[in-house]
């Protein structure tokens, strides 16, 4: 297997239903080069909002990351990703200040994940089931961690109000996202296939007040 090529996905991810209208693309995946990936990020965007649906294959996650507590590790991955996504909401100077404590803040928030507000989502797989996740909002971005379901855990990262219905469905045809379940995953293809995440090219004139408060920044220096 080539260094930057992974075997076919090997599990069925979740995404928004087919009747949702908007752009779709594969944003990212996690896995060692040349080996099966353990999570895939499917992104969605319309004129009002954007949503990344990350599906984690639980057994592969444990095999690769070897966490002491798999659920705690999932929560930490979710908060760390969230904080990295809000970096464009800080000025260049403040971004340098928050990078050092970023992981520590992610750990602090992940430890509170069990106390985040509850939120229901519908999962359509072999049957429809309501699951209760935990939602964290910070700096205009929201993250929801859903419980493990049929060997997979879903993490959501959203901007804006999100879909009208909190419904996710299994994606057996991934071609609208720019890849195929039965074909190898090429890292180099991500740049060609992914759309534009709303904050990708954002240049902050001032730092978001949530970031100033949480990271203890001097508002006069931002």
In short:
This protein has 222 residues and is of the alpha+beta class. It contains six helices and eleven strands.
Features:
11 strands; 222 residues; alpha+beta
Largest sheet: 9 strands, mixed
Total beta strand runs: 11
Give the averaged pLDDT, no decimals. 92
First-residue to last-residue Cα separation: 47 Å
Main sheet: which strands, in order across?
2-10-6-7-8-9-5-4-3
The outline comes out as globular
- Gyration radius, rounded: 17 Å
By DSSP (H or I, 4+ residues per run), the number of helices equals 6
Helical percent range?
A: 10-25%
- Spans of at least 5 consecutive residues whose pLDDT stays below 50 are none
What structural class is derived from the secondary structure elements?
alpha+beta
Strand content: 25-35%
What is the H/E order?
A: EEEEEHHHHEEEEEEHH
